[in-house]
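G., before I forget:
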Amino acid sequence: MTGEDVIILLPLVIVAAAAVAAMLAIAVRRSHAATAGIALTGLAAALAEVLVNLWLKKGYVGHLAVMDNQALFVIGLVLAANLVVGILSYGYLSRRRERAEEYYVLLLLAALGGMVLAISIHFATFFLGLEVLSVSLYGLVAYERGRLGVEASLKYLVLGGTASAFVFFGMGLVYFDRGSMIFFWVDWLYGQYGPGPLGLVAMVGCVMMFVGIGFKLAVVPFHLWTADVYQGAPAPVTALVATVSKGAVLALVLRMARGSPWAGYYFGDRAVYYSGGVCPSAPVFWILAAIAVASMFTGNLLALRQRNVKRLLAYSSISHLGYLLVAVLVSGAAGATAAGFYLVTYFAATLAAFGVVTALSGANGEAESLEDYRGLAWRRPALAALMTVAMLSLAGIPLTAGFVGKFYLLTAGAGAGLWALVIILVANSGIGLFYYLRVVWAMFERRATEEKELPRIGVATGVVLAGLGAAVVLIGVWPGPLAELVRAWMGGGW
Amino acid sequence: MLELLWLVPLAPLGGFLILAVARARLGRRAVATVGVGSAGVALAAAGAVAAGFFALPAAGRVYEQNLGTWISAGDLAARFVLHLDALALVMMAVVTLVGFLILLYSAESMAGDEGYARFFCYMNLFVASMLVLVLAGDLLLLYLGWEGVGLCSYLLIGFWYREPANARAAKKAFIVTRVGDAALLVGLLVLFTQMGTSDIGGLLARAAERWPTGSSVATLAALLLLAGAVGKSAQLPLQVWLPDAMAGPTPVSALIHAATMVTAGVYLLSRMHGLFALAPAAATVTAVIGAATLLLAGTSALVQRDLKRVLAYSTMSQVGYMFVALGVGAWGAAIFHFVTHAVFKSLLFLAAGAVIAALGEEHDLFKMGGLRQRLPLVFWTFLAGAASLAALPLVTAGFYSKEEILAAAWAGPAGGRWLWAAGAVGAAVTALYTGRMVFLVFFGTAKREPSQQPGWAMATVLVILAALSVSGWWLDPRWLLGGTEIAATLPVRLAGTAAALAGIVLAWYFYLRRPALAARVAQSRAGAALGRWWIGGWGFDWLYNFIFVRPYVWLTQLGRDELLDGPFRTLGRTLDLAHAGMSWTVTGRVRWYAAALAAGAIAAIAVAVWR
Amino acid sequence: MDTQTAEKTTELWPLAVYAGLVAATVLAIVTISYLLGERHRERATGLPYESGIVPTGTARRPLPVNFYLVAALFVIFDVEAVFLLVWAGAFRQAGWAGYVEIVVFAGVMGAGLFYLWRVGALKVIGGRGEHESGDTDEQ
C-alpha cells in the first residue's frame, strides 16, 4: 500500500480513524455529546473528502479496489445517509437511558463496510466489506437490548452468517473455475482463450453468491428476516439497514453485473479489456428477473394490511429492491444511471420516513403502530407533512422524488425491451399506493382518544428532517441537475 | 441589465414563499411591504430589463436566459428558459405595472380583511405564474405558468370561501377552464411529438419549414391551442365562468381581467401566431368566436344589474375584439388592445371597487346614483376609464386600439366585412352599456351616502391608471412588435367611430334624458324576454346544465350502484386474499426463515444447472 | 442426451466427487468409531474417573458471562497475532511501508485493548468495571 493508495482511500481512512478515535474517547471518558461529535465530524470530513477526491485522485488500489466515479457516488451516498442517521440517533439516544457511546463506533464501522463494498472489485474486499457492515449491524440492531431487539439481532446474525457462508462458497467455486477473484475479466489471465461463457461450476458459484447478496438486499425468497429485524431494531438503525446496507450491496451488484464500467484502460502497466462482469449469463438473468418479480409482488402484498409502520416499511423496501433489480437487469450505463437515481430517491424518502419514526419515538417505546400516527397532522403538522411527502415519494406520486426515480426505471426498462417487468412494476406501484396512503390517511384523521405526550425535536434533527423533505420535493419538481449528476457519475469512467 | 430578467418572475415568487411560510408571524404592515414590495421589485427589474432590451441592436432584439434544465428524458429536454422578445417585453411590462398598481391598491382596500396575508400570498403567486407564462421560452414552462394562473384564479375567486356561492364560483371557473387546459395540453403534446422539441422558437421555425399552409396537423394543433385560449380568455363556448368569477375581491377581478388570467389566451395565440398563419381555417374560427363573443357579451352587459357583472361581460366582449384581431392576423392590434384594455379595465374595476366599498358592499346599479359630487375622484377616474372603454374618439387610448381592430377586420380575408359589422355593432353596444353604467352610478339622484373616500394609495393608483387611459395613442406597442400596416379607408374608420359615438348618445338619451323610456322598453313584453335571456348570458348556463351537468350527474348516479365499483372491489378483494395467503410465510421462526433461504438457493441453483 | 448436457455433466463431476467425499468421510468417521469403540455399560462407565472422586452435582453450572467474554477476546487477539507472524516472514520485502502498516495495525489493536480494559471487559470476576460504575454515578 503506497502513499498514493492512502490518498485514494482517504475517505475510508478518515472514517476508520474516527472509529478508533471514538473508541479511545469512550475509554478515556464517557460523553454522549463528545462521541457523537467525533463520529459526525469524521463522517462529515469524509464526505468533504469525497468531493475533493472527485477532482483530485481516482484510481486503482492494487487488485482489490477501485475509486472511480461510481464508487465516489456510492460512498457519498453512504456517508450522507450515515450522517443523517447519526444526527437522528443523537436525539433518539438522548431520550433513552441506554449507554449511547459505543453506538457511534458501530455506526462508523457500518459506514466503513458500506464504503469498502462500494470500491470493491475483488472477492476479498467484497467479503471484507460485507462482514464489516454486517457485524456492526448485528451490534446496532441489538443496541437497545430489549427482548425484540435481541431477538431481531440473533435472527439477523444466524441468517446473515448462513448467507455469508453462501457468498464464501460461491466465491470459492467461481475462483475454482476462473482462477481469478476479480469481478471482471483480465486479459493476462484469459489471454489464451478469453473469458468465454461461464462454466457450470462458476455459474453455480455466481448463483450462490447471489443468495448471500439477495439476503442482504432482502429480496424474495431471502427476505423473511426483514420485517422482524426492522421492527426489533431501534428506529435509526432500521433506517441504516434500509438504506446503507442495501444501497452499498446493490452498488456492488451493479459492478459485478457490468464489470468495470468502461472499456480499455490500464491496470497497473497491463492492458485490460472489458467484456462484461463476472455473472452475465442467461440463467442468472432469468433468476434475477424472477426474484425481481417475486419481490415486487411479495413486498407489496405483505405490506397491504400491515398496521405496524416499521414492518410496513420493511415490506415496502422488499418491493423497492425488486424495482431496483429491474435496473440491474438493464445492462449498460442506462441501467446503472436509473439504479443510481432510484437509490438517491429511495434513500431520501426512506430516511425521511424513518426520521419521522425516530423523532416520534420517545423514552417509552417506538412510535411504530399506525395508532401512534393517528391524527398526527393536527398535532405535529410539520412532521406529518414530512411523512406524507415520504410516503407519496415511496408510492411514486408525481412532484416527489419517487415518481422521477420510477420514471427513470421505467424508461430504462422500456429502453431495454423488458416490457413484462415494466408492466409488473407499474401494476405493483398501484398496489403499493394503498398502504402508503393508509399511513397518510391515518395521520389526517381526527383523533378522539387521549393523547400521548410527543417528544421534543432538537434543532439538528429538525434541520435534517427539513432538508430531507426539501430534497424529496426538489428532486421531484426539478430532477434535471440530479439526473445529470447521476448520469455523469454512474455512467462510468473516472 | 438584461441579466436581471430572472428576477422578474422570481421576485413575486419569493414574496409568495415568504408570505406562505411566515404568514402567521408577520404583521399587516410587513405583509403589505412584502406583498407589494415584491411586485415593485419585479416592476423595477422589468424596467431595467427593458432598458437593456432597447440597448440591443434593433435588428435582432431577442434575449434568452437559461436557468437550468428542468426535465431531460429522451427527446424531451425542457429547460427553465426565459425568452424575451418584443411581445414578451410588452406583456411583461403590462403585467408588472398593472399588477403592482393593483397590489398597491389592495394594500389599502383589503386592509380590513382577516385573510390579508393569504390574499397577498395568492396574488403574488398569481403575478409570478403569469410572468412565468409570459416569459417562458419553453412550452412546458409556459404550461407551468398557465396552470399556476389557473390554480391562483381558483384560490382567489374562492377567497371568501366560507360563502358556499363563492366556493361554487371558484369551482366553476376551475372546471370550465380545465376543459380548455386539457385541450391545450393535447395541443402541446401534438406539437412536441411532431416537432421533437419543446422550445417555442425552434418549434415555430420547424413548423414553418415542415408544414405547408393549411396542413391538417397544423390546423389540429392550432385548434387545440385555440381551445385552451378560449377557456382561459372566457370566449365562446367556455365563457360561462367569468361572470361568476366576480365572487372574489375586487382587486382579484381587476387582476384576472386586466393583467393575468383572461389575457393569457390572447398572449398564447399571439405567441403562436406563426402557427395560425399556417392554419387559416383555425384563424377564421378564432375570428368568428371573437365576433360572436363580443356581441353576446355586449348585449348581456346591457341588462346586468350588478356593477361588477357589467364589467365582467365587458371584458369578455373586449377580449372578443382581441380574438377578432388575432383571427384576421393582426396580432399587433390585438396586443395594442390588450395593453389599453389592461389599463382601462383595471381602472374601471378598481374604481368600481371603491364605489362598492363606499356604499357598503352594494353591487346593484339601480341602488346607486348621484355619486358625482360625493366621490369626485372616483367619478373622474371612472369616467376616464369608461370613455376609453366606450372608445371616445381622439382622446382615449381605447379608441385607437379598437379602431385598429375594426380596420384590420375590414381589410382582413374573406368575410372580413361581416367581422367588421359585428365589431361596429359591438362598439355601439359597448358605448351604450358603458354610458348606462356611468349615468346610473354617478348621475341622477343619490340613493345612498358613501361611507368612505379612497385613501392615498387607492387614489394614486386610480389617478395613474386614469392618466394612462386618456393618454391617447402612444400606448401602441406595434412599432416594437413589427407587423404590417393596416390599410383601411377613411370612411371605414369614420363609420366605426360613428358607431361608438352613437352608442354614447343613445346611452345619454336613455339613461339621463329619458329614464322612463328605458324602463318602458325594459318592461315591454319583448324587452323583458330579451332582458331575461341576456341577463343570464344568453342562457348558456342553463344549456350547459342541461347538456353536460345533468347527464354527468345521471351517469355518476348510475355508477354509484357498484356498476364500475365491481371490478375494483374484486381486485381489492383478490389482493386482500393474496395478502392473507402471503402473510403466513412470515412466522417469526428462524428455522423456517433459514429453510426458505435454503430452498430459494436450491431452486436458483437448479435453474442455473438445468436451464 | 445432447452434447451440451454431456458437457454439463462432465463439468459437474468434480462437484459430485466432492460431495461424495464429504459424505464418505462423515460416514467413515461414524462407522469406524462405531466399529472400534468399546461398548459396555457397567456401574461406573459413565463416571469420569473410576478411581477418583465421585463428582457431585452437574457440570453445567452458569459461569459469569465475563468468562466467555474474556475467552472470546483472547481468541480475537490471538488470531490477530497471525498477521504479525506473516509480516515477520516478509519483513524485508515489506520494507518501511509494511512496517508503517503493521504499526498502525498494532496501534489499533492496542487502542482496542485499552478500550476493553477501561470498560472493564477484562475483569473476569466482579461483574461491572470501575470505569463503568463511575460513569453510572455521573448520570
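Chain A has a mean pLDDT of 85. DSSP finds 20 helices and four strands in chain A.

More on Monday.
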